[in-house]
Amino acid sequence: MTALTRWIRRNLVVIAGLGTLAYLILPNVVVLVFSFNKPNGRFNYQWQRFSTDAWTDPCGVADLCGSLSLSLKIAVWATIGATVLGTMIAFALARYRFRARPAVNSLIFLPMAMPEVVMAASLATLFLNMGVDFGFWTILIAHIMFCLSFVVTAVKARVMSMDPRLEQAAQDLYASPAQTFVRVTLPIAAPGIAAGALLSFALSFDDFIITNFNAGSTVTFPMFVWGSAQRGTPVQINVIGTAMFAVAVLCVLVGQLAGARRKRS
Amino acid sequence: MTQPSSGGDVRLDRISKTYGSFTAVHPLDLHIPAGSFFALLGASGCGKTTTLRMIAGLEEPTTGTVRLAGKDITDLPPYKRPVNTVFQSYALFPHLDVYENVAFGLRRRGVTSVKKRVEEMLELVQLGDFARRRPQRLSGGQQQRVAVARALINHPQVLLLDEPLGALDLKLRRQMQLELGRIQAEVGITFVHVTHDQEEAMTMADTVAVMNGGRVEQLGAPADLYENPGTTFVANFLGTSNLIEAEITDKSGGDLVLTTAGGRLALPAGRCSAPVRTGGKLLVGVRPEKITLSHAEDAGTVPEGRNRISGRIAESSFLGVSTQYVVTAPGCPEFAVYEQNIERDPRLVPGAEVVLHWNPAHTFGLDAAQNIDAGTERDEEAV
C-alpha cells in the first residue's frame, strides 16, 4: 500500500498530464472512430459496424465539399487580410506615439471581449442598413474583423519585446530602412505573425455564429454541419473533421521540430 | 587582417543634444585624431553615450557638426557613414548565426564573395568553430567577440565601442581589454570607446576625455589626467584624491606657500589650475600612494622640504601588496594613504600618531569654487 502511494506521489504530474490529455483528445477520438462507422439510418450516433465507405467517398454528400472549399477560401483570405492589417496595426501601436493610440489599444480588444452573437447581430444590422448583399464578401469582412485583434495581440507582444538596438545595429551595418525591415525586423517578428495567422485561420474556418448571421444564402462548412445535424449526420462530416485534426497535428509537429532544430544549432 | 585599413579623424564642432528641457550634451568641441584609441569616460547620464551615438548617426545633434576625415557627415544617415558600432549588450541578430551576423555589413554593401573575409575575421577573434551557432548559444565573451568582428569586418574608419565590456566578469574584462588593444594596434582604425570604468579607460586608451554633466571636464593622456587633474571631479573620479582647503599666503621661488588647517604646504605654481592670488582660496590635493607614513616618534627623520601633515590613524586594511590607511588629520578627516608593504612599521596601527609627508612636486592645486566631493559617488551612479 505504501509502495503504491509512493508510486502515485512520484508520478502524480505524469498522471495528471495524461488525464488532461485524455480529456482533450477523447472527443477527437470519438470523431475518428465514428468516421469508420456504417450507421443504420441518417444519424451517426450509434456504433454499428466498421466501414471505409465515407473515407473513399468524402464528397458523397450533396453540398458538403462545396461548403468546405468555400470555408477554406474564406479562411485563407481572412488570414491574409487580418495578418497584413493586424501586423501593421501592431507595429504602429508598439512603435509610434499618436493621439488615438490609447483608444486603439483598448478598442482592439473589443472583438475578443464582446459576445459573438451580439457582434454577429449588430454587424448584420449594419450590412442590412447599408444595403449590402449578404454572401462571400460580408462573411470575409466579418472574419477579418474578429481575427484582427488576435493578430494584433500576438504581433504586438513580439514587437514590444524586440530590442530596439537590433534595428540600430542593422542601420549601423549599412542596411537602409527598407533592408532593416526585411532583414531584421520582419524575421524577428515572424513567430508572432505566424502565430497570429494560424489563429486567424482556425478561428475563421470554424466560425459559426457570426457567419450564420452574415452569410445570406451562402453556406460554409460549419453551417453545413449545423444544418445537416437537423436532418441527420453524414459520416463524411467525421471524415472531414478527422482530416482537419490530422492536418493541425501535423502543423504543430513540424513547427516543434523546426523550433527544436533552431535551438540546437 | 585582410587588408590594411586606415582610420579617419573625427572632429566635433559645437555639437550638442537636448531632449525637451534636458540638455544631454552641452555644445562640445572634440578632436579625435586618426588611429588613436580614444575613451569617453564618465558616470552614467554624463552624455558620453549620446556623443557616441551622434558620431554613429543614431542620434541627431541639436546643434553643431560631425566631421569624419574632413568630410561633414552630420546629415548622413547611419547606414551611409563609414563608422561601425559595438553596442552595449552587443545587439547580435538572434535570427542569424554567427557567420551571417558577421557577414551582414558586407552583404548590405553588395559584396558577393564574403566567405573568405568572414572566415578570416572569425579566425582573428578565435571563433572559427562557432560559425554556425546562434548567438544565444555563446558565452558573454564570445558574443562580445562576434560583435567586434561584425563591426571590424567592414573596415570602418572609426569603430565606436559603447561600454563593450560592461556585461563581462572582471577576469574576462581584463582579457578583452588586452585583446581590444591588440586588435586596435593591428588594424590601425580609430577607436572611440565609451566607458564608466576609469581603470578600463586608463588601461586601453591613449587619450581620455572625462565627461560630467554633458561637458568634457578634462582631456589628455591617462597618466597626465591622473597626475594633473584639473577639476575636483577628475581628481575624485579618476582614482582617489585627498583634497584639503587652503589659502595662498606667499610665493617663494616657483612654489606657492599655502596655509591649511594642518600646517603650511608647498605647491609648485605650475601645478595649480586655479587663478593664483595671495590670500586666495585653493583646494590642494595629493594622491594616496604618493604619501609616506612615519610614526610621530620618527618625525625628526622626515627630510626637509617635504610637505607634512600630522594625524592619527583611524583605520588600516591590509591588502597584500599594500596597506590602505585612513588618517584623521586637521582639515581632512579621512586622509587616504596607500603604503607598499616593503618594510612595515609594526607601530602603524589604528590610534597611532603619525606624520604624513610627500614630495611637494606631487601636490596639485584646484579652484576652490567647486564641489569638493564631485565624482566620489561613482559606484552609485554607474550602472
Please write out the topology.
The complex is a heterodimer of chains A (265) and B (383).
Chain A: H1 2-10, H2 12-34, H3 53-56, H4 64-95, H5 101-107, H6 110-113, H7 116-130, H8 136-160, H9 164-172, H10 177-205, H11 209-214, H12 221-231, H13 235-264
Helix pairs in contact in A: 2-13, 4-8, 4-10, 4-12, 8-10, 9-10
Chain B: E1 10-19, E2 22-32, E3 37-41, H1 48-56, E4 63-68, E5 71-72, E6 83-86, H2 98-108, H3 115-124, H4 140-152, E7 158-162, H5 170-187, E8 190-195, H6 198-204, E9 207-212, E10 215-220, H7 222-227, H8 232-237, E11 242-252, E12 255-260, E13 263-268, E14 281-286, E15 292-295, E16 307-318, E17 322-329, E18 332-340, E19 353-358, E20 364-367, H9 378-381
Parallel strand pairs in B: 3-8, 3-9, 6-7, 7-8
Antiparallel strand pairs in B: 1-2, 1-4, 4-5, 9-10, 11-12, 11-14, 12-13, 14-20, 15-19, 16-17, 16-19, 17-18
- In what range is the share of β-strand residues of chain A? under 5%
N-to-C order of helices and strands of chain B: EEEHEEEHHHEHEHEEHHEEEEEEEEEEH
CATH topology of the largest domain in chain B: Rossmann fold
Number of helices of chain A: 13
The geometry of chain B reads as elongated
The overall number of domains of chain A is 2
Q: For the CA atoms, what is the radius of gyration of chain A?
A: 23 Å
Describe the biggest sheet of chain A? none
Q: What is the CATH C-level name of the largest domain in chain B?
A: Alpha Beta
The helix content of chain A, as a percent range, equals over 70%
Q: Give the number of helices of chain B.
A: 9
The CATH architecture of the largest domain in chain A: Orthogonal Bundle
Per the CATH scheme, the topology name of the largest domain in chain A is MetI-like fold
Let me know the average pLDDT of chain A. Answer: 90
- Contiguous low-pLDDT stretches of chain B (5 residues minimum) are 378-383
Q: Determine the CATH superfamily of the largest domain in chain B.
A: P-loop containing nucleotide triphosphate hydrolases
Largest interface comes to: A-B, 20 and 30 residues
